[in-house]
Design a protein that fits this description.
The chain is mostly helical. The protein has a single domain (about 10-165), classed as Up-down Bundle (Four Helix Bundle (Hemerythrin (Met), subunit A)). The protein contains six helices and two strands. The chain has a two-stranded antiparallel ribbon. Strand 1 and strand 2 (about 125-130) form a beta hairpin. Helix 1 runs antiparallel to helix 3 and helix 3 (about 55-70) packs antiparallel against helix 5. The longest helix is centred in the last third of the chain and has 26 residues, at about 130-155.
């Protein structure tokens, strides 16, 4: 069995999917412009009343990417304030997080598979090995929020397909 590095199953995946998210958001912005409405309409939309908006989906997806890389490297995740209100600001956030993820090297994640990672959420605390964290927490959450961003855009008539989700 070939050993897979923690770096190879995290950083390149986050970067590729963040680029895809950026491209999907750009299509949403072009869609709004072509139909003469403000992109903010898309950014504030959600699929159900109790779900997060498109803006929040992008913010959370980027938080999972940068947070996972930091935690796997044994560092504190860089804080980014959730203040984006335009497509351009969300694009800048995605670009910033791609830069953060790309700043990590394979050597930064040496031993990450066994590193203990603790996640605190309201009313709970979860402890993982690095491998269990990336496989069972960080990646599923990251993909969930990227998928919800895709679904909100698609629901609003943005011409997106599986290829947009999978390939930048």
């Amino acid at each position: 069995m070939t050993a897979v590095s923690m770096y190879s199953i995290s950083a390149p995946v986050f970067v590729r999917m963040l680029k895809n998210l950026s491209a999907m958001l750009a299509k949403g912005e072009a869609h709004a412009k072509a139909r003469s409405f403000d992109c903010g309409v898309l950014l504030n939309d959600r699929l159900a009343p109790d779900m997060f908006t498109l803006t929040k989906q992008v913010q959370i997806a980027t938080d999972h990417a940068k947070g996972a890389m930091a935690r796997l490297a044994g560092r504190q995740p860089e804080a980014i304030e959730d203040k984006e209100a335009t497509c351009a600001e969300l694009q800048a956030r995605i670009a910033k997080v791609i830069g953060i993820v790309e700043s990590y090297k394979e050597s930064d994640l040496a031993g990450a598979d066994k590193r203990e990672i603790t996640i605190k959420v309201p009313n709970a605390e979860f402890k993982f090995s690095g491998f269990d964290y990336i496989e069972g927490w960080a990646m599923p959450n990251f993909y969930f929020h990227v998928t919800m961003a895709y679904a909100i855009l698609r629901h609003n008539g943005v011409e997106l397909g599986k290829r947009d989700f999978l390939m930048s």
